[in-house]
Structures are given as C-alpha cells and as structure tokens.
Design a protein that fits this description.
By secondary structure, this protein is mostly helical. It has nine helices and no strands. Helix 6 packs parallel to helix 9. The protein starts with a helix and ends with a helix.
C-alpha cells in the first residue's frame, strides 16, 4: 500500500512538472504575437497559429483572452495599429459568440469600437458583418 502511494505521488509530481513546462512553452511560442499583430504580418500570424495548434493542440479562442498587448486584446491592438489584414483574420478565426463577450475592461469589442468612433475601420466593419 505504501509503495502504491509513493508511486501515485511520483506520477502526480511528474505530471505537474510536465504541465508547467508545457505552459511555459506555450507562453514562449506566443511571446511575439503582439509584434506580429502590430506589424500587420498576416503570413507570420498564420504560421504562429498553425504551430501553436499543431504543437499544443490549441486554437485561437483557447489563448486569445490570455494575451494582452499593452492592456489591449489582439483585435483591439490590430485596430489601434491599423493592421487590417491581421485584424480581419482574427475576426474570421474567432467564434462569433466569443467576439460578443466582454473583454477584461468589461466592454465588448463593438462597444469599444463605438466608444472610440472607429466604426469606419475595415476590421470594425468585418466584425459587424460577422456578428
């Protein structure tokens, strides 16, 4: 019985170590995503999203809310930096129900766009069409 308990404790400890390592690896893989969005590099963003999906089995909606670029979400960052290609791609890749959810500041994307007078921005129009 004691041997079983030691084995179980060892397995739990080992799996926690692997989980922490995997989390660190995902963070490392996503480290420069804000730069990619700001630079409007659609090809690099696609490559980054594919690698995260194949390496960690995570889709955009799995890690979108965990990423903050100077306090803004990826789509807000795209709009602020006039990254039309990347912003439109992000809007298309996110589930529409997630696009309607309030972000960290409690405002939805649509409310933030209206508040800042950005309704005519191409990404804002893509968002409106998607919703």
């Amino acid at each position: 019985m004691l041997k079983f308990a030691k084995t179980a404790a060892l397995i739990v400890t080992a799996s926690l170590g692997v989980s922490a390592t995997a989390q660190a690896d995902v963070n490392e893989a996503l480290a420069n995503i804000c730069t990619i969005v700001s630079a409007d590099d659609k090809g690099e963003l696609r490559k980054k999203m594919r690698s995260v999906e194949s390496d960690y089995r995570m889709k955009l909606h799995d890690y979108y809310t965990g990423i903050s670029c100077n306090g803004q979400s990826l789509i807000r960052t795209a709009i602020s930096n006039d990254s039309i290609e990347v912003g439109t791609l992000l809007v298309k890749k996110m589930p529409s129900r997630d696009l309607q959810e309030p972000e960290k500041d409690g405002k939805t994307l649509q409310a933030w766009i209206n508040e800042n007078g950005l309704q005519d921005h191409a990404v804002a129009q893509a968002l409106t069409e998607r919703l």
